[in-house]
Amino acid sequence: MISLKPASQRSSGFTDDAAEQHHNDRGLVMRRPAASYQDRWWSTDDGLRLYARDYPASPGRVRLPVVCLHGLTRNSADFDDVAPYIAALDRRVIVPDIRGRGLSEYDQDPMNYHIWTYARDILDLCDSLGIGQAIFVGTSMGGLITMVLSTLRPTLIRSAILNDVGPVLSPRGLARIASYASQGHHAFKNWHDAAVYVAEANKVAFPNNTPHDWMKFAKRVFIKGRDGLLRLAYDTRITEAFRSVTVTSSTYDMAPCYMSLATGRRILLVRGALSDLLEPEEAEKMAMLSPEFTRVDVDYVGHAPMLTEAKARAAITEFLESQG
Questions:
Q1: What pLDDT shows up at residue 4?
Q2: Chain-wide mean pLDDT for the chain?
Q3: Could you list the residue range(s) of the whole structural domain that residue 104 is in?
């Protein structure tokens, strides 16, 4: 666990490390690692200005790009360590902040915060970058967006990596996510306290995380405002459309969307062995519905794996290397 000592008593292990700071139009500051990516901005059909990271492929083979989509309350920083290892496989990697998250603009109408809107935003992004086909990586909500995309533009997705998500989700996990996502934002004066907060909120999913892991986690999900305080990097209203319906596994019938994605495409499912969102039985049903399906369970991890775990990284690398 991260120490709860006052700032004056903290060990040097919890001090802020050097990183570039990145401002968006709202004056918010997100920490930017010393990574080699370019900032991309695009406009949606309804006029929002959204942000994405663009990691260039390493010199070598000419290969399809990879688009990485984050989960409900997360942002592009989730792929800080994932995008570089994928780019090293000679693949361009695009990682957007979904509307209402990270550096992307917030929507004035919270009812627009749903996966069909997000899917159309990704279509706009791909059009703006000239991407006609890609391999998609979707964590949690990002996986649901990927399923929807396969119905809106079937030619866009060559294959997909789904991170701890499927067409049928556990009411237990959905209730937990709805509970923490709908809480008001907490404001912290320092990174130590922010790290303590995320550790308490996520320790069930990552029981083996170290203080260093929690600090890295905090720096991905918090954003600094004009007042210097740290707040979670998403619009608190993103769950309003989510809360407007009963939170059950049948809220949305995603089975047709999954069937669309699985038809004629290779699927890699990465599942947290401790996941409360995707039950083992549902993962088995997904395999039966997909003729080209591979599954890997990451030990000692819940929802959702970081995709940097040795087993996850090996499976993703093998999956990507087997394709053009």
A1: 37
A2: 88
A3: 16-321
Residue 171: inside a domain: yes
**Does residue 62 sit within a domain?**
yes
- Record the tokens describing residue 30, joined without a space: 């997100």
Decide if 10 is inside a domain: no
Which tens digits make up the pLDDT trace of 168-180? 999 888 888 877 7
Q: Exposed, middle or buried by CB within 10 Å (0-12, 13-18, 19+), for 287?
A: middle
Domain count, the chain: 1
The structure tokens listed for 228 are 């210097």
